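B., you asked whether I could sanity-check this one before it goes into the benchmark set. Here's the sequence:
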Amino acid sequence: LTPLRALAQDTLEALTTPVETLGLPWSIEVRTGDTTASVRRRQQQRPPTALITTPESVSVLLSYKGARVRFGSLRVIVVDEWHELLGSKRGVQAELALARLRVIAPNVITWGLSATMGNLEEAMATLLAPAAADAGRLIRGRQSKDILIETARPVDVVRFPWAGHLGLTMLEDVVAAIESARSTLVFTNTRSQAERWFRALLETRPDWLGAIAIHHGSLARPLRAEVERRLRAGDLRAVVCTSSLDLGVDFTPVERVVQIGSPKGVARTLQRAGRSGHQPGATSRLLGVPTHALELVEFAAARDAITAADMETRPPLDRPLDVLVQHLVTIAAGEPFDPDAMRDEVRATHAYHRLTDEEWSWALDFLTRGGAALTAYPEYARLTLDDGRMAVSSERLTRRHRMTIGTITGASAMNVRFVRGKRLGSIEEAFINRLRPGDTFVMAGRVLRLERVRDMTAYVTRARGRAAVVPRWMGGRSPLSSRLAAAIRTRLEEARRGVYRDELETVRPLLELQAAWSRIPAPDELLIERTRSRHGHHTFVFSFAGRLANEGLATLVAYRLGQRSPRSLSVTANDYGFELLGREPLEVSEEEWRALFTPDTLVDDLLACLNATELARRRFRDIARVAGLVFPGFPGQGKTTRQLQASSDLFYDVFREYDPGNQLLSQARREVLERELEVSRLRETLELLTEQRIVPIETPRLTPLAFPLWADRMRAQMISSERWRDRVERMAAQLERAAATTTGAKR
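And here's what the prediction gave me:
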């Protein structure tokens, strides 16, 4: 069981070689969404010795009659890259499928393979299920991996950094790194960034055309497969990629990894470094390329945390009922089930071991009559109770259900295809809708001209020239992890004491100026800077909590301030802190700050200050799709985002009015709090802030820590990116002139 189709193919090749060499009479096959219908039929009739597959494909197999015969002789389950599935609905889907397989084959043995995490014991208990967790064994490799993390350091570090201001100015360092290795993976944090860097490398080194490639999840599967094949064969000098190549695909020729921008997490840094030197005894090498000066601190902190084995945890999900509802239809499609026995089977998983009788009864009622709101519509009575067993109500519904099995959802994507030729990949519908025929954009490293849009497909031709829009895909920047944030605070404490090691020596001018104009906060301090500009009165709060938590924190504090006395505040957040900007100065005492940071009434205040209904409505779209309420369309006839949103909005409104106790509504609200607002991390942050010593400082101007927040706010307010960059560069130059007159440094 593997999380990626590409990984399935790689595993097939890795297993086939020794099996054939040893002359073993085994058949090893792959079954994924790419497998042809004829091969799938043959596998159902004559299962191979070993089947490499994904959570979705296992569920599909369980939806066919004869699953007990097909899996009755199952002896071993191996779940690869379990850390990638853990904490996601795909992981829960895998848990439910494993629970069914253990009922069919009670003596089956389960193995899990995982990267290092901060909660390996919990990860093992989740995979093996609570009843078997005590009997599980955690096996660690004895040989430690040598990892070398270096950084490309700018010759002149500006003391007022902003996101992206270095970026492509470090291009020559990346070119040199690629030239010094046989094969290199250049990781970026977003698909848009991958497209930009690929184009920039080709423009700098046109002789590399054909020797470097691009790889990300929105490119067509055949294009990605060809890149992977050439990379494995050692035919490519470099591949610019995203997390699409994060996982354990074995590319032995890769000698070096380049990471553009901070990976924002300790485990992610380790994972990406490990893509190089991917063999016993070899050293993994990663070159970190900062996109702004403070990311040098992040790379140094990540190295420290890796050395200390201080990794992030991946908490498992708790009772996502949309996945449960889908799974019950899947099992009933294969064979009718006894409700009581199925309840016990579901509760045997970690995800549902706390499932209440009320939640179980709701799930059955929802599937047999559509719940309280949909009783009048027979199509939502998907299961029927016949002689004490639950069965799918029609064969037509079974066929349609199989097409929707899975939990992967996202922004509606359009196919991108040459007018006369192959498919290039997919791009978000919202991006294409902003273009007109004749407009150009970059994809797969090519400049393309949009010719027409028809049936959810954008038809394109090749275009000449460089001027083109780079698309933005959803799922972009990751927030700073709590473990990396703690390591950053430790490095900043060294700088506060005058110790500048490694990368911090490069950013020393920046940090010394921060100390001179304000302060480098100690780990037990909360620095609050106040300054005034022609835009108003700025208050900067440096919590180092990560972008998502800081966004929630800023909104929460602004709301609580407004409850005390009406005022208008604009908020901006980044990984290090947040800004409150108002027309009047913010006069808040230390005790009042502590009251603003109280975790009491956190959820109520968050729901009151945010458009929680709209956030839950957006989240409900994915839940409705997974639960089978919304059908995304037949292959080649997919519905648009607008159509899917309209369908899910209708259900959302109907449930709110006629079935307010619907468990899917409650799940949507929970997911908003936990996934979009990170309420657990926000609560931990608030508890930490109330214990820290508050250090308020009046500053005559923007400091190096405050400047990136100011720049982010200006970016959000200005339509033109050129105007924004000019404005930011002028302000940075003005502050640099002021810094030139500063003598000495306060620590």
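One thing to flag: The radius of gyration is 27 Å. Otherwise nothing jumped out at me.
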